[in-house]
């Protein structure tokens, strides 16, 4: 099997899974099978089937509707957090690579400091001051993403600053900022896209984890992590309470990882090797 076929399989599978959750999130904005916040105590913990395709929770709420609406929260938090990481991290990495010396050292040491505090710890610090919410979860995950993109950008940019076409641009009188924008950034865009996809999947996991411990989206906003937290004492009576949100998290993260692997194989020329 060729590397291209493997990449296509990975990319297509990931794209299909991610598209399903993205479509569910978009559709839930205007329609869900049942009212997301509507409670039907007479139908509580109902097994999947009939009017409730994925069953109901301990309040009688439709699980399918909550999964669809929860996709909004997970995807929105992940997208915005990754956007924050890229918007701040990429310029910092470019600046560190273009200005070796005290600025590079300052940025890298700040990155090391940020890496010392996982997203959960940052979220705890933020919520201790401002209270738990989806916005604070976005800030916490976004802060954690900044050093990831800064370090990746710096490393990739450093390998380009000694190349002939960069030296030619410097001889032509272009400054560091212009070279970074016109020559460095376009040549590392493929790496940033792949890393963004990977961080996107980690963002979904981080949002679920923060919601699980009560630091993410707050009721009545649906969240896959909080659905898991609510099910932990009832899983023996109604296993679908944990299986449904758990599978949603697994499949969404799997889809994003497959999509990232496919993009990496498609965009990295070193991996375009055909095996006989």
Tags for this model:
elongated; mainly alpha; MetI-like fold
Short description:
By secondary structure, the protein is an all-alpha fold. 71% of the residues lie in helices and 0% in strands. The chain has a single domain (3-29, 62-268), classed as Orthogonal Bundle (MetI-like fold), CATH 1.10.3720.10.
Average residue-wise pLDDT = 87
Number of helices: 9
In the CATH hierarchy, the third-tier topology is known as MetI-like fold
Radius of gyration: 22 Å
Give the biggest beta sheet. Answer: none
Please provide the ordered H/E string of secondary-structure elements.
HHHHHHHHH
Could you say which structural class the secondary elements and strand pairing correspond to?
mainly alpha
**Tally of separate domains:** 1
C-alpha termini separation: 7 Å
Which architecture would the CATH scheme give at its second level?
Orthogonal Bundle
Shape: elongated
Low-confidence stretches: none
Tell me the strand percentage band: under 5%
Task: Summarize the amount of helix as a percent range.
Answer: over 70%
The total strand number stands at 0
CATH structural class: Mainly Alpha
CATH superfamily label: MetI-like
């Amino acid at each position: 099997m060729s590397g291209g076929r493997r990449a296509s399989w990975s990319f297509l599978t990931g794209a299909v899974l991610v598209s399903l959750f993205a479509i569910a999130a978009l559709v839930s904005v205007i329609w869900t099978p049942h009212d997301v916040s509507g409670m039907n105590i007479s139908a509580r913990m109902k097994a999947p089937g009939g009017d409730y395709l994925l069953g109901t929770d301990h309040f009688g709420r439709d699980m399918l509707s909550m999964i669809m609406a929860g996709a909004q929260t997970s995807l929105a938090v992940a997208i915005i957090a990754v956007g924050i990481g890229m918007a701040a991290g990429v310029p910092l990495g470019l600046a560190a690579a273009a200005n070796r010396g005290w600025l590079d050292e300052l940025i890298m040491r700040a990155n090391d400091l940020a890496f010392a505090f996982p997203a959960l710890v940052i979220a705890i610090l933020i919520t201790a001051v401002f209270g738990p919410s989806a916005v604070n979860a976005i800030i916490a995950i976004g802060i954690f993403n900044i050093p990831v993109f800064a370090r990746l950008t710096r490393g990739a940019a450093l390998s380009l600053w000694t190349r002939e076409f960069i030296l030619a641009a410097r001889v032509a009188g272009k400054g560091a900022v212009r070279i970074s924008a016109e020559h460095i950034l376009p040549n590392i865009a493929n790496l940033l896209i792949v890393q963004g996809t990977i961080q996107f999947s980690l963002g979904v996991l981080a949002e679920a984890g923060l919601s699980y411990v009560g630091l993410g989206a707050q009721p009545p906003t649906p969240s896959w992590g909080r659905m898991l937290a609510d099910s932990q004492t009832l899983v023996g009576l109604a296993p679908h309470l944990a299986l449904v949100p758990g599978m949603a998290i697994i499949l969404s993260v799997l889809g994003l990882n497959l999509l990232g692997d496919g993009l990496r194989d498609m965009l990295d020329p070193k991996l375009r090797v055909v095996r006989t």
